[in-house]
Amino acid sequence: MKTRTCSRLMIVNDEGKLLLFQYKDEHKPAPFWATAGGELTEGDTYLDVAKRELYEETGLTNDISELLKENEDIFAVARSTTVLNLSSFQSY
Q: Is 17 exposed, middle or buried (0-12, 13-18, 19+ CB in 10 A)?
């Protein structure tokens, strides 16, 4: 099984609302919700990816705060490929 290492962002506004993106897996009828974030490539740190994805997905360049949580889970990503997902969660 492929291992996918990624960094996710917990982006919360002044009203306490969490920013989520809706995705649809081409092999499943129901959409799902996820936080902003993306996969690490060789040489990336979790913080590098958090900053990159914050900009790519929202256009923001704000500072990223401390690591909130590390997580390991197995689930399907694009095209229903099952992966072992290793994530770090940063707050914004």
A: exposed
